[in-house]
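Before relying on records like the one below, remember that each one covers exactly one chain. Contacts with other chains, cofactors or solvent are not represented anywhere in the record.
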Amino acid sequence: MLLTSSLRALPAGRPLTCLRAVRFASHDAPQFNEPTGLLFGEKPPPPGFRRIKQPWENIWYYGMYGTMLIGGVLLYFKPDTSIQTWALKEAKQRMEARGEKYKYEPSTH
């Protein structure tokens, strides 16, 4: 009823874009997979047998953990580019150029 009343209100030369949107959006309800209680929906193998890996699993394991290992090594050896390190180095150079000591040494009065 609402659709027919909106069609009557449209001018004759206007394209019916709202009808297309309604038609394309009118599909079935989303599919629901009933939970089975099995991990990833796989049935466990019979006793005495091992689970058969799928061909993509080893690639995923080596790729995921290899990338994490390489990332950890790269982060460990990353150069220190912080502003504090640069400022301390620059201050030491300027103080040495003026002949001042950059380390604090308490006086012995």
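The mean pLDDT is 81.
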